[in-house]
Amino acid sequence: xxxxxxxxxxxxxxxxxxxxxxxxxxxxxxxxxxxxxxxxxxxxxxxxxxxxxxxxxxxxxxxxxxxxxxxxxxxxxxxxxxxxxxxxx
Length: 89
Fold this sequence. Notes:
Blueprint: E1 3-4, E2 7-11, H1 14-28, H2 35-48, H3 53-60, H4 65-85
Antiparallel strand pairs: 1-2
Helix pairs in contact: 2-4, 3-4
C-alpha cells in the first residue's frame, strides 16, 4: 500500500508509516495522531456505512470478529444520540 523510496516493490513497514505520519502531524501542530487511530477510524466509518463486519474483518486483518463488534455497537450508540438530539431535549 505504501511504496518505499527504493521503488514500488519495496514497501514501508508499519513502524515507518507511523513515524512519517507522526512527524508530518507534528510539523502542522496536530497531536495524538497514530496509525492505530487511522485504522480504528477507518473501521468505524466502514461500520457506519453499513459494510458487513465480515468484510471489515477481511480488510483490516482482524482475526477475532468479536473485536469488530465494538464498532457496530459504537455506531448504534451514535445513532441513538443523534435520534435523541433531534427531539430537542
